[in-house]
Amino acid sequence: MGKGGESMPDEEWERFLREAEAGTKGTPEEPSARARMVARRLREETGRPEPWRSHQPARRQGGKGWYAVGLLVAVALLVVALDPGRVAGWFGGGESAPLAAESERPDQPPPTEEAAQRPTMEQPFRGSPAAQWGDGMAGIGMPEARATGWMSKGRVAQALEKTHDFLAASSLDPGVLRGEQPRKAIALINPHQQDVQDYLATAFRAPSRENDPLLLFSRFEKTKVRPVGDVVKTRGRITYREGKRGAVEVTSDVTYVYPVVRAAAGSDEVARTIVRREVVMSWDDPAKVVIEPGTFSLVSYKVDTTNGGCGTFTGYLTPEFSAERAATRPGDGPEVDPYDRSTSLETRMREAGDAGCGTATRS
User: Fold this and answer.
1) DSSP strand pairing (335-336 vs 359-360)
2) 20 to 30 A from 195, CA-CA: which of 57, 86, 130, 310?
């Protein structure tokens, strides 16, 4: 996205991706992220994916989930279909005091007392736990910096700040949410990680189950839906540890809540899309890994999406409203609470197995 939120011309975008793909021939010593993912996928391939809550790029698919897991790299998309009988309370009210930032994994899901309250244009988070969540990056817990691996305390602080920038640019940027190219976010990814650059070059040009931009970025098609207000509610945290070859491995596990209405003028039915995304990035030592300063190598990425489209690969989140939900048969996968952060994404996906489009217990 260019300055002022304007779209990047297609020709410039293509040039940007080609230059990002070029890089040098040197690559990190470890097997590439996509290569590891494909290797495991081929070993685990059991047939055509069913719609629901799995997305193992070319393995499973679904309304309640999509996910793909590699050897050391997990690429995942978990999509959750909505149960028309349980969609009464989407967004929270906003009367309660905001929660403190999450510092560790909770031991239980949030309460459901407000679930009967429907969202409105004035209160798009009414009837949802998100009413007490933080706005944008304020809802994401940040750790204190300390010397780790090859990095001093100051360098770790810079890596955490860049991680913060990536999350904002990939999942909160207003232009990207309107469907524009996530140029700022992509610029933070190691241009020499060729498998990831190949994925990025393909995902926006020809999105598919394996090359889906929604694995890393939140985007809506502006001709179909528009945001309600300018607030995205979030809850999650960032952690880090020493990784391979002294790298600083940073993990973000964040749930984003996006309120939207139809793009047509006068539309006022509020729907909500909930995306939980886990991204693991490696801030590598340039003395040991081919990498550009200020960029990270992707280790893994997993996504769990509610009301963002079941078995669709348009490159955009595609929320349903009451008319579509009434015409959609119930999902055949298990039920999932999209606000429950007491279970890791890995565990949730393992429990989901190859189920098809499932059912969200609330929205």
Assistant:
1) parallel
2) 310
Give exposure, 55-90, as e/b (b: 16+ Cβ within 10 Å).
Answer: bbbbbbbbbbbbbbbbeebbbbbbbbbbbbeebebb
The alpha carbons of the chain give a radius of gyration, in whole angstroms, of 19
**320 Cβ contact partners less than 8 Å away, ≥ 6 residues apart:** 81, 82, 271, 307, 328
Q: What is the DSSP letter of 235?
A: E
Burial grade of 165 (CB within 10 A; 0-12, 13-18, 19 or more): middle
* Closest to 255 in 3D by CA, of 80, 113, 136: 136
Q: What is the pLDDT of residues 24-72, one digit of tens each?
A: 444 444 434 444 444 444 344 443 332 223 333 322 223 333 322 232 3
Look at residues 87, 82, 73, 77 and name the one whose alpha carbon lies nearest to residue 53. 77
DSSP H or E segment with residue 213: none
Q: What is the pTM of this model?
A: 0.78
> Taking the CB of residue 341, how many other CB atoms lie within 10 A of it?
22
